[in-house]
# Entry
Amino acid sequence: MRVQHRSGALWMWNSAALRAAGLDSGGDGGDGRFWREDERLRGFTPPVRLDLRGVGARAAAYGITGFTDADPHPGQDLPELLPQRLVVMGIGDAPVKFLLDDATLPTPGELAASVAAVRPRPVAVHCVTRVQLLVTLLALEEAGPVAGDRIEHGSVIPAETMPWLARLGVTVVTQTHFPVERGREYATDVDPDDQAHLYRCRSLTDAGIPLAAGSDAPYGSADPWAVMRAAVERSGGEAVDRRAALDLFAGEHQRPSRARRLMVGAVADLCLLHVPLKEALDLMSAVVRATFVGGLRITPPE
# Structure
């Protein structure tokens, strides 16, 4: 038996799995817990075929025209299997991904040196704790921010750091639905000092911080309409209006906080709805009639 933590960071194998892989007797299986060792473990397990075409079809039904792959070790065959546009971090003009863990956290100076080494390209830094955010802000201050820098998740953003974020001009790409989906767990598992600062939404935009949303699927709901509903239903002063919730998913890949608008000459990545936009925003559910990428319909014909 192999069990993966919902964060994707930890695998837990039982004794039978360790024996089957030859890791139970001098094979460095330890206690069966493997932290951030996906690459190593792939050599001991049979490959699992993923239904990426099915993922693309379901996403098209939601009106999704593009994905951002934020995996530090992305699969090589994704562009061929998905009908949507795909931005892969670290490739082309996409930001370079930095994955931080508290247990192996670099110093601000070390992270600044790593950021400076990839400049002038922007960076996307995975920040899910208070200390990760502080180290990242110090590093960006030292290396110097550039357009396109972004904080991934921004799980804990203390109020006193928001003017700092705004001054650096860094975009936050957050999961505003997590406090709605995981409210019960967060109430017991998250440090009380952090609970008021979880996955901010409205307060970030009010502070002048560029904001966009991501589903973080498969770790969160893959339905962007459900994420929008969660953004509208947030408590604690973090709720946004319905149009603002839609705009969280309508951004450009280089500037995800700037919502695209339909205009002559623009790339025809869009979806058509069964109802007027106002009604769709009132419903906040998938009422998609057809989805187009580059002017080509990717949903099955009616």
User: Anything to note?
Assistant: Residues 130-143 form the longest helix (14 residues).
